[in-house]
Design goal:
This protein is an alpha+beta fold and about 260 residues long. Helices cover about 55% and strands about 10% of the residues. Strands 3-4-2-1-5 form a 5-stranded mixed sheet. Strand 3 and strand 4 form a beta hairpin.
């Protein structure tokens, strides 16, 4: 890696992770369409020095290498902020870093990942509830909009409903969730019931008419409720979800300070 791409003196200090489909290890990560998605994490001090020379919009974008390489250079605080979003119900970055290959880690990012996994594990029900309530709101939006004959609104809400259903199913199975591109594949690998959830979600998305949209939401709802009861018993928020809907949405996690202090 040349000095114009990344400073030589910081190469031994940067934590490097291979993310995306290749880091995850799925077969799609090794076909001709795949690239290497690298995350390079510097200490906050080294990142400030890096930005002073290279700017804060500098990326590694190498299309001559086979496969092509795209690398983001970020600070440890940037990653800490993304893990902290778990406190607002956003578990995406935890999934990304749970499903990547560590190339080198002098910044001890692994400790941050482990602490965030503990936060997720200890507050699984609260996080599932947050996403299930989101799903239930989107389902209500989908059905009510379809009944009014509002085509665009119904289909937008339908897609958002399916996304929230898959995220909920992922966390019922004890896993954070992938980003949109791989969400269906990731959930489908978790269990037989999760695979069925993906199938029912696909049926919802393929609905030809507004009436089909309304009807196709029902099996998906029934499956989610069944899995929620299997996991959490007769928790009141499963049936009376509207009592737990907040605007703006919120998730209440105790003992939020979990990331290692510098």
């Amino acid at each position: 890696m040349s000095e114009s791409i990344f400073p030589e003196k910081q190469k031994d200090k940067v934590s490097v992770f291979l993310c995306g489909s290749t880091g995850w290890g799925i077969k799609e990560g090794f076909d001709q369409k795949a690239d290497w998605d690298l995350h390079l994490i510097l200490s906050d001090e080294d990142y400030e020095e890096f930005v002073h020379v290279y700017g804060d919009d500098h990326v590694i974008d190498d299309h001559e290498h086979v496969p092509s390489i795209f690398g983001q250079i970020r600070s440890k605080q940037w990653l800490r902020d993304r893990f902290k979003k778990i406190e607002q119900g956003d578990c995406l970055y935890l999934w990304i870093y749970n499903n990547c290959v560590t190339i080198q880690d002098p910044q001890n990012i692994q400790a941050m990942i482990e602490e965030s996994n503990e936060l997720f594990k200890n507050h699984q029900e609260e996080l599932v509830k947050y996403h299930y309530v989101t799903y239930a709101v989107r389902r209500l939006d989908t059905v009510s909009t379809a009944k009014r004959g509002i085509e665009v609104g119904a289909r937008i809400s339908n897609a958002e409903m399916v996304k929230a259903a898959l995220q909920t199913m992922s966390m019922i199975n004890g896993s954070p969730y992938a980003y949109n591109k791989w969400l269906g594949k990731q959930v489908g690998l978790l269990s037989k019931e999760a695979k069925e959830c993906v199938k029912l979600g696909e049926i919802c998305l393929k609905s030809q008419t507004l009436e089909e949209i309304i009807q196709n939401t029902k099996p998906l709802r029934a499956l989610l409720k069944s899995e929620l009861r299997n996991k959490f018993g007769e928790a009141p928020w499963i049936e009376e979800w509207w009592k737990y809907n907040k605007n703006p949405p919120e998730v209440n996690l105790e003992n939020k300070e979990v990331l290692p202090k510098e």
